[in-house]
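Example (one chain per record):
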Amino acid sequence: GIRLAPKEKLEIPVLFMPTEMKFYKAVVVIHVMRENGENWPYVVTAKSNTHLNRNVTVAENGKTQGILWIYPINGTSEAPQQKSVVIRCQARQRLEQRVELLLIGILPDATAGPEAGNSAVFDKDESSNAPEVTDGSPATLEFLYELQYQSDEIRSQLESLVGMQLVEKEWDTESRIVTLIFNVVFAPSKPMRNEATVTIQCTAGGLWKFPLVFIATEPEVDDVINIEAVGLNKESIVGFKLTSQTR
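Predicted structure:
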């Protein structure tokens, strides 16, 4: 019953309030008819375009009574913002740290397939180096993870200094909590403080984001240079060598 003038715009609000960590699908259908009730002259026949026929409603005389616009909507449930995990290392040193990330709200019925055995498989995308992990859990779970950066500048500073690999998983059926254990390697070359986000997605539904803060503190002093005075108003000189780290 909404009337639209020529070239008038119509805004259709869509509200998404997920109650569970899973995928949701819906369709927004807009049905447009002439205000005077007349039909469009297009006649639907057996030879008409199949794709076009799905987007029209046909009157008894075969003419087009209404036009349909169909917009599919895919909703992804995202967990609330998690606390930041701080990874601290001294510059010019190498830190290897195990990081545990808790995924809350996994649905057992959503993850268990008809042939679910005694293994939990972690799938991986091109940006992840996730191995296959089995631990006797009652359902087969597949996860994709990726380390994302806030800007290209931060990516250029961190990408070559940080490594992340999934090594283990713990599954609690009662609390519906999956714990992913990652091995994080941080080898900074100079003092810095940058942030990144680990995005984890379950193929059965659900998205979790964990902020990571990488802090590189001041490095140790390389050497102490002592210059002995030879007298007042006279120069004292000491020589030392520096090796360039780049070309």
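Caption: Residues 110-138 have pLDDT under 50 and may be disordered.
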